[in-house]
Amino acid sequence: MAQEAKVDTEFTIPSVCQICDTSSNIKWMCFECDLFFCLQCESKFHTKSKTLAAHSKIDIEKCGTKNIAEVIRKECGQTICTNCVMTNSHKDHTLNSIEEAYDGKVQEMKKFQKRIQSEIPLYQKTEDNLKGVLAEAFKQYSYIKEHITWKEKEIIKETKHYAKKLLDTAETEWKTIEQKINQEVTVVNNITENFEKEREIRGHTLPVSKLLTKTFPTIDNTYSPEEEVHQIKLLQHYFTFQSFKIKDIFGYLSKGPGFKLVKTYETSLRGFTKILPLNNNQAIISCWEDEVLQKVNFGKKNMTVETNYPKIKVYDIAVMKNGDILLSKQEGELKLLCEKGAIESFHSFSPFKTFGIHVNNENDIVVGLASSSDGGDGKIVVLDSNGIVKRTFENDKDKDKLKLISCPLRIVTNVDNSICFIEKSNNGFSNSGAIVAIDEEGKLKWASTRLGSSFHPADLSIILSSGLIVVTSYSYRCNLHVLNQKGKSIFEISVAELFNNQALFGFGPLSTAIDSEGMMFLADYSTDNYRERAKIATFKN
């Protein structure tokens, strides 16, 4: 049924219908068609077309041209007068007064302005970050261009020098051979000439008396070439063409962060479960096997232990803005390590157990919970700094829906406030897993389930300047994966390549972290009997 439209301006009604150009009994005005027409044309044409029937029209006779709109239709936002309220097209609709609708729109506008005000700094910060990334990208491009040009000149220079050296050696050898052989050829020619003369003389018949007294050369007096000349061919060099790939000599471009090894620190521990960088070259480290929790300093030469906390098994660590440290022990309570060293209960999640924990930029605490380390039901809870629950993200109760959360092992938040976590159905070290990202409402953004069956994510961290996610995984060899904000793998490198294939690590780094300056930490996990001390390595991007 056609809908009656609001009248907010005066208009002039034509003398005849604008459809049939005959009837002077004008009944309707259609806003979409911008036509005035009679009752007959409305029934014959306007209501028979599905498209035209949906247009908004007004009854000229009932509404007139100067009635004041006093109410508004909630469904479509049309303002109507009191004469039109009880028409068939409006009597079943929800109506509000103009004042109420106006107040509601004012409040809506204020909320919109408030949201804009709160988001402007975020976009300004994003713009600054993008400009920073652009500057870094140009710096990196300039560095690459300079070094490629330098490498090109060096290779050309070295190639010319080496080629000249080979050519000089070959030419010297050739001159020596040519000289010796020519000397021998001269000797042979002289002997040949002498033999020819002797043959000519012998061709004449000698008297018997001279023939009896003639002395002929013996074999010992005949010519024999120098032994060196015979062997000279065997001793001559020949050129072997060496096939090669130019990238193996020149180098090549690699995608992803250019992590360069800065320092390797040896420790007295068997391995590390978690490393969390602090300010001033400090970090909190934990070793589950040794039940060790320490605050350490990274010096230019060695790593020193500043604080040894009470013997405790810690799975994950996060630090709040006031310096208090949160500890996940895979138990029902989230623990708080105060600055004085006391360990207190911060929040109870029983019967669930705590796994991954993280403190975001707003000082909210994101906690991954699971009913069991072997899988089952899991959820992610967001607390404020006082331990009060702000949000909870759980699996959809619909059995047909995908189960996103079973055991969130590690958690980080990205620059867009999305929550990224390692999701594994079993906490055993031999099981594959995925990186899952959900938005602020708990809806799935992406899940990196396509990295292969050998993808065993152990830890993850965020490169703050770019939002890239760095993941350590272990299988037959340990790798670093770099994912973009859509979960796509854009870079992968083995830890062996980071260390130039030196055997510096044991089973592999299970913990990774990147501090605010972009320094990456890899903490070793080693329980073998051949090397008792695990290591921590630092890399600069």
TrEMBL record:
Q: Name one GO molecular function term.
A: ubiquitin protein ligase activity
Against InterPro entries, the record matches this protein to: 6-blade_b-propeller_TolB-like (IPR011042), TRIM45/56/19-like (IPR047153)
Gene Ontology terms, cellular component aspect? nucleoplasm
Q: What is this protein called?
A: B box-type domain-containing protein
Q: What is the lineage of its organism?
A: Eukaryota, Metazoa, Spiralia, Lophotrochozoa, Mollusca
